[in-house]
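Page 42, continued from yesterday. The earlier attempt failed because a stray header line got pasted into the input along with the sequence. Redoing it now with the clean sequence only.
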Amino acid sequence: MIGATTMDMKSCLNEDELRYFLSKSDAHAFGMFIFTWLSIFIVFFIVYQWTNPLTLFLAVVLLAGRQLGLAVLMHECGHNTLFKTKKYNPLFGQWFAANMVFADLPSYARGHLKHHKFAGTENDPDLNNYKNYPISSDSFKRKIKRDLTGKTGIKLLQVVWRGLKAYGNVETRHNAKPFVQEVLVQFLFFTALSILMAPWLYLLWIVSYITTYMVVVRLRQVAEHGAVPNLYDDDPRNNTRTTIPNGWERLIFAPNYVNYHLEHHFMAGVPAYRLKALHKLLKSRGAFQNTPIVYGYRAALGATIKF
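This time it went through. Structure tokens are written below.
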């Protein structure tokens, strides 16, 4: 646990460094979007060209990581930190990220900003996702089973369906618009796959979303806040965890620098593409001297599950 005499992390940075880490870049932002979308279509192209059980299985796993990558871009745009040009954050965050994972950027941002405001307290709206960790391996296996069998994901799609039904009611039509928008973008994505390759490929996107993506999201949340030194301490070094992934883990569990979660909670205004450099600087200046930095998501699970 962080002692009372441990240095304040902000004291590690001078004004010029603060300005640098808080600076935004449209070029970096577009680069992240292009890489994420290009990797999605590469996965589909490989399956289309070499369709077999192995490529189908790998696609369902890899697409879950790409879906998380889009969710991370939505997250960054929700903070208005990804693009320097302000209007690009809601535009690209909604139409090219949030809608692809059946989410609404404004709604997500409102809830997520409360998470940052109340992290380290009992008022954290995301607390139920990780407050009971560490948990037994049997309990964890039951959660993973619900995810992989589609029970968790189907519940989320049922929310979308109820939202679409509400569109038929004049009184609830305004609230239903985000769900209509999500389905519209999904249809456009289906159409693009149909024209460029084959329509059946879209099924892989849905299967990934309701199965492996649910697992990936759960593991990410647990790695970030599960069984941390002190979940009810306002110092992010106590209530949040950074996990340094290996190469393949970065593709699936840690796209777009989402693994630097402690640094993100320290300064939420820092764009994702600057978090790695911020981590290195803080570490070099002793800010993490008494802080457990986990290497690999297997180690993160080991800290949160009673095997």
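Notes: Residues 194 and 200 are 8 Å apart (CA to CA).
Reminder to self: strip header lines before submitting.
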